[in-house]
């Protein structure tokens, strides 16, 4: 009686949570081998113990136990010869039929045995980034009521310490979180994974060699037994939340491999637990994560990646490092990252990247006419065995005059092209778009279930061409007299003294000043940045009147504008009129040398009298650069002729013409001169003394 009770307690302990139903099932197996009388006797044991003496009862129980123990080994051997079977909806349960392309998700009746050739072949499952992929592994055993244990036996490839695809580098949590609590350290009666045999995906190089190291995914994969009530069927559903492509750090996403075994377990009266699986194949599953092809480009205005490309650090505009090599401060265009989406005709969505010179606030100042733009475009796929190709969109294509080179390989699973464009006159103050699209495809065979052919969104590199804006900074107004009675204007220059003007032009292009007029000194002094995208060019103009320019008027026009002659140019006018009877003293000159150099009157006393403030001692050198008057200037009155003026001022017509070059030699002595005409009057040196009128003219 005691032995029977001990045996019963042992069986109850070894058949977790199955109670008498599990024990009855095992007895039913014994009944198929032991004569029914013995089974009946076994079932009648409790009744017999109530009516039989203690010694007889002990003999009967011992005999029955011996019979059961003797028959247990043949039952164990029989069970060892049985096979666990993969059943639907196990991944890759059956092959494609004619006209189908459903593998590895082809359908069958629930719990139907899988086609062995199909289910034993490696299953290639593809999934895009950012999606949740689910699959089922289901198996039945031949020895009810025992459980089937689906055990992961394989591992994922080393990833060189990088985190990808839903797996976090944080350690300490199981990658497959079990929904039901573990009831047994070795065997789980609910048919979920046995943790002591699982080789978790390595997250660090040190984890690659440690097959028992667990890596955290924070619930990335969850296993659920869908049929715990069926003792001989285990149906485990797996769910994997694949990371977004933007979070990937892989240059190429590797294949992820998981291997599964299905084994059944049972306990016999000796208390030992065993897993058996003689011929059910190990199921190898390869997960292929498929990417969308994406563009990268240079130069960009910051370290923030372009939208659509991996951004594992999660950089945004506020956290990116600006690129000091481009922008409005250095007059160099670049691409504004990360870009933005824009709705197009129909349901299409464009991926837009602005190109221009950006300031610190993000304002786009565009690019300039005549300024070459060079963008290096790269198209990449992360697909193992993938290839990419880039092309322009036929309509609208590229801006007029732009060029895009042919594809060239520039890395693993990458191609590059160079976009160049120099905007022309007439393209200013407009936005010009370059439309390109990328395509990824595979070089792998169909049996490997490669990633599908995919296209990027239509990608637009949008270039704004700047409208030139120029302005005069100096002089603010025209120089000299442009209107009124020019003949009455005394003038603003003297023979021998350079008349100079500083000119400054500001522009959001490269400023330039052009000069129209006679020979003169004109040169660029400097060009300076203002820091806001504008520049100021400073020029110097100078004209030195010579003997013979007295009384003449010369005009120059200066044009301020951009260096590409795009916008209408702004004009400043400089008028230089050389004064009469005024000459410039050269270094070391005296009254005597000056009168000889300019062929003037040798009567230095008259010159001294005309410049009382300038000449204190007629024998000393004059001050270099000083302007010296050598005679009076007479304003013509109505009726005046050269004859009358010469007589009035004790001079000759020849002398008048020599110091008044603005009078033409054809002027007849008796021709009446125009009113307001001004004449320099110098008395002839042979005249004994000037007339009263000559003295009065001073």
Give a written overview of the molecule.
The chain contains 11 helices and 33 strands. The chain has 698 residues and is an alpha+beta fold. Helix 3 packs antiparallel against helix 4.
Descriptive labels:
single chain, 698 residues, alpha+beta, seven-stranded mixed sheet, 11 helices, 33 strands, disordered N terminus
In short:
The chain is 16% helix and 30% strand. The chain is α+β, with helices and mostly antiparallel strands and 698 residues long.
Present the secondary structure layout.
Elements: H1 2-14, H2 19-31, H3 36-51, H4 54-80, E1 85-86, H5 116-120, E2 123-128, E3 132-140, E4 147-152, E5 176-178, H6 205-208, E6 221-225, E7 233-241, E8 256-267, E9 273-276, E10 283-290, E11 294-298, E12 334-335, E13 340-343, E14 349-356, E15 373-380, E16 386-392, E17 403-404, E18 408-411, E19 414-421, E20 430-442, E21 454-455, E22 459-465, E23 470-474, E24 493-495, E25 499-507, E26 511-516, E27 521-529, E28 535-543, E29 553-562, E30 570-584, H7 591-597, H8 604-610, E31 627-629, E32 633-635, H9 642-648, H10 653-659, E33 678-680, H11 692-697
Parallel strand pairs: 2-10, 5-6, 14-22, 24-30
Antiparallel strand pairs: 1-3, 3-7, 4-8, 6-7, 8-9, 8-10, 11-15, 12-14, 13-14, 15-19, 16-20, 17-19, 18-19, 20-21, 20-22, 23-25, 25-28, 26-29, 27-28, 29-30, 30-31, 32-33
